[in-house]
Amino acid sequence: MAQQSITNIKELASKLNISITTVSRVLNGKARQYRISTKTEKKVRDAAKAFHYSPNQFARGLKLDKSETIGVIVPDISNPFFSEIVMSIERESKKYGFAVLIGNSGDDTEQEVTLIDHFKSRKVDGIIIAPVGITSTHIEHVFQNGMPLVIVDRTFPGVNIPTITSDNYGGAYNATIQLNTILQ
Description:
The protein has eight helices and five strands, in the order ααααβαβαβαββα. By secondary structure, the protein is an alpha/beta fold.
């Protein structure tokens, strides 16, 4: 007969007759820090596994005011340039325990604004954006209100937001020099 699942920490703590705080500390890897016995730690971990319990990340994010999620907005995910950027962001984010939400603006500023609002409502911890259009007001507003934000692939003169861009002119110059060397 299959073991029942437990969906919340309160239920797990009740089954074990242990405080919710103790269960939370064990499941968050803080048993040593709070001097929780190895026996209790094992009991909690074994029960969590047996009852197929996994913490509700949304609830955890609300409590900690941190979602461990990064929002990424690109103009066209089918463009190999942007899909490679997204894959790199995702690969690096995993190393730090962050998940990535991807938004495709479709080269539409209104959709970009909608995605930013959506990510903010999801309490993402930061946004990486390859913006479209020639205005940056909506992006500046988000950054000025405390949302960590990085712009990629575009610049807005006079805007003081962290930005990462390619050196297209330097790359074109170096390609021309290389080609010229080969042709001589």
